[in-house]
Structure formats: C-alpha cells, structure tokens
Amino acid sequence: MTTESEEPTLTVDELAARAGVTVRTVRFYSAKGLLPPPVIGPRRVGHYGQTHLARLALIEELQRQGMTLAAIERHLRRLPVDLSARDLAIHRAVVASWAPDTVETMTREELQRQAGRPLGEEDLERLAAMSVAVPDEDEDEDAYRVDPGLLRLGVELLDVPLGLDTVLAARSVLMEHSRTAARELSRLLRDAVAERDSREVKSLSAHMQPLVVEALLTTFQRSLREELREWLPDEGQARES
Questions:
Q1: What pairs with residue 158 in β-bridges?
Q2: Which residues form the domain of 86?
Q3: Most buried of 28, 39, 83, 182 (most Cβ within 10 A)?
Q4: Is there a single domain that holds both residue 135 and residue 174?
Q5: Helix, strand, coil proportions of the chain in percent (round to 5)?
Q6: CA neighbor of 104 nearest in space, from 136, 78, 72
C-alpha cells in the first residue's frame, strides 16, 4: 500500500540527484522497464516517488554484485510489481548481504547524497555509534568510512523514536543471535559436505548463502510479527479503542 510519504513528488532531475545517477540513466532504465513510469502531473511533468528511488538503489546494488543489465532485468521482473519502497529496501539489504564486507571512504557530501537527506551533527554521531559511518582519522575531517550494506538501514533508524542506547542494545541482540544461527547452520552444512571435494564445497556455499539469508529474513519477519501481536493491538482493535 502506498503511504503518504511515498507519494511521487520528485522531478526526474531531483530523482537523479538523490540517486546519484544521471537523468539519462533514469530515462534509460525507464525505457528498459526497470523503473515504473512516473505519475504525470500538470504541464505533463513526470513525478517520481520513494519507490523509484529504492528501485534505483536496488539496481545499483545488483550491479555492484556483478550482475549484467539483462540479468537485473530478469531479476526485477520476478519481483511483485506492488512492492513498497520499504520492501525494496529490505530486498536490497538481502542482496547486499551476499557481498563480502566492504568499507568505502566518502566525503560528507557523498555520504549525504547516498543517504538521500541532509545529515546533522547528531545524525552523524548516531551513525558513527552504529558503526555505519565513522570519521576517517587517516583522512581529512570531512571523510567517513562507510559500510554501504548498513547505510540505508542506519539512515532509517535515525527516524525511529527510540533512544540510541535502545538501538545499540537491539543491534547487540541481533548480532549475538545471528552469529549463533550462523554457527549452527555452518556446522550443519559442514557435516553434510564433509567428504566432498573442496571446489564443490565452495560452489555449494556460494549457492546456499543467498538462500539461507532470505530464509532467515523471512522466518525472522514472521516470528517478529507473532511476538508483536502479543503486546500490540491490531489495527481493528486500535480503531475501536
């Protein structure tokens, strides 16, 4: 369902600037069917929304993984057409997790462009505390070491009405339990392929990793929904009260 914050309000120039691509690239992707058409407003001006921005970020991540444009086109065609910007961001996070850990050095201007918003001093402090964007002491004061896989999640957490201590505690819980799950899954896979050729094991690992990540994400989402139902009223109950 489209929320008010997802209403198309960006011109093609604004969309390109926010996504860090050229207007020509946006139009090329649109012509290839990688982006849905804009909403046509007064004076025949096309307007784009957060879903277009999230889809551009997903395309960029898929390219970062080495996928060709034809492969990206096939991949996007398999996705539901009504995915929201948040759904696309989650999908991008899953895709980003397939890649080895990387850290990029960015200026504050580049960081803000990637974040899609201005970042104040408090925002930068929170991102640093979450190990998303840390000042690079080896460079000048305007440089940051950024984890691209965590950046979009970190930026979204800036708007969550929770204290930084709570966010960091939640991060610790997730890291602890994800490591435990990874350790147990690794043990199961290791025992299952103990007698196979090392090259075959590497190939199997590369194939299994994205599948395991998606499975973990799906099961966690369902488990979290069930837990939240225990102490949060559903929408119908909220309206009645």
A1: none
A2: 4-97
A3: 83
A4: no
A5: 65, 5, 30
A6: 136
